[in-house]
Amino acid sequence: MVRLGFIIGFIALLGALLSGLAAYRVHDQELALDRIALARAIDVHASLVQDRLTERELLARVASGLFRAPSVIKPNMLEPLRSAIYAFKTDFVVAGWIARLKPNELTAAQTAIAGAGFPNPTIRTYDDKPINPAEITQPIDVLLDLEPRSDETKALPGRSYDQDPVRGAMLTRARIEKRSVASDPIPLLRGNGPVGIIVAAPVIPEGATEPAGFVTFSYELASLMLTNDDMSLFSVALRDPRKEGVELIANDQGVVSTRRAAVDGPAPSATRTVSFGGRDWQLGYYAKANSARRAEQTAIIVAAIGFAITAMVCGLFGYVAYNNLRLSREIQVRIGFERRLTAVIDELNHRVKNILAVIQSIVTRTLRHGADIDGARELLIGRIHAMSNVVSLLSESQWQGVKLKGLFEARAIPHADRIAVTGPDIAVSARAAQSLSLLFFELASHSDEGLSLVGKHPHITASWTVTGEGTDEIFHFRWEELNTSEATRRPDSDFGLILLDRVAPEALGGTAKRYFTDASYVYELTAPMETVVDMTERDRTDKISAPVRPAR
């Protein structure tokens, strides 16, 4: 059973180790796959954003290249470009023409704006404050035309963006660098309008060194690079170049809002840099799902499945192994029982043969030639009865011996109630019990002629003592018949004399003597205690009679 438990424990330990290893590998693989998928999706998104920005910057460059400005204050300046800019199908909010006007051109510009159908032709600042042309000494940048024209956009022409901190800085840089330039993120159309970016491309007439004006395109920031949806693996944030530690992020409705990047907050999973309008823009990507936690959950599921399978395997193995072990033990018990049965039969045959040999000797000696038939019959029946009685006593004790006093309490001993018995209550072996039972029968059966009672005192005494220690212990037995003489006591038979003088002493490995005193008949027997008890016989019989148990 211990070995079976060890095997099951080993299988459980092996299953737990394999389950843990599988969970560890799955955790690493899931984490690696999630990171690879996230990195790949980020790279694809950043590449698409860069392509879209390049297309829009290319539109501004193409538009500025196609633009012809024989007169910068000519009304409907974008009319020739309408078909070209709409052919790109870009999602710009407003396309505009910003002319760089000299002070003496402001009046003509107002006339051109009014003639183009715009409601407010007055030259004014970006926040709608009128400008006095007499106070202007340097060229200023004024919006003269735009597309598309709507009720909201028609009010914009006539505004000057020189003092606008965002648009003015963009136009100044485009004029100096003479290439398309993007602005900082800024609300479009109105102060609370959607946040976007404006790109301005300078228009330089042939042979001139300074731009005559600028073609501008404005784009909403959400649709340009910050669009987030529910199916995306990440959310995108744009680092606001105007403010340190501030990010711009758009929700799924395209509304852009600002948030402060916490110092102790989660860092972006990755950052990418894109170029637009001569500037580098940094995009921060935040993973929506915690890949580490997801990998841990998957690993826990794999480990739980592994532990469940291990428990099932251990249970099935234990069930099958236990049944096999029980069957094996039953077979071992059966084999042991059959071996023990064979040994018991052999022992029984041996004892039966001994008993039959003794009975045969009894019959032969008792019914010798010339014996009195009636007396011989009585002796034969008594001797056989004595043998039967001791066999019954041995059977009751499983042949483990018989208490010596028990032989005198048997009915097979004549006049047993008149015999005074004294001595330690020792258990004699089966062989000694057979010899002593016949011995007691012979002594008691030949004392009936001299039986007489004095008061209530018996006239026969049987006593024994044990002297010495260890292997030197000696058994002393004394039989004395009081008030008996040679004349009153029945003479011993030939069988009785042989039993008293030779058979019993030899069976016990001792010596015997008998004699008459002045008032009694005495029989004494001395034998080693080890033959009287015979522990080897008792151990052998105990092994045979012990219950059969399977070996562990």
From TrEMBL:
Keyword Ribonucleoprotein: no
Keyword vocabulary terms for this entry: ATP-binding, Kinase, Membrane, Nucleotide-binding, Phosphoprotein, Transferase, Transmembrane, Transmembrane helix
UniProt cross-references to InterPro entries, sorted A to Z: CHASE_dom (IPR006189), CHASE_sf (IPR042240), Sig_transdc_His_kinase_HWE (IPR011102)
Gene Ontology MF terms: kinase activity
Domain of life: Bacteria
Xref: SMART domains: CHASE, HWE_HK
Family matches, as PROSITE patterns: CHASE (PS50839)
Domain CHASE: 129-225
Cell location: Membrane
EC category name: transferase
Reaction(s) catalysed by this chain's protein: ATP + protein L-histidine = ADP + protein N-phospho-L-histidine
Enzyme Commission numbers on file: 2.7.13.3
Transmembrane segments: 299-322
Listed name of the protein: histidine kinase
Organism expressing this protein natively: Bradyrhizobium symbiodeficiens
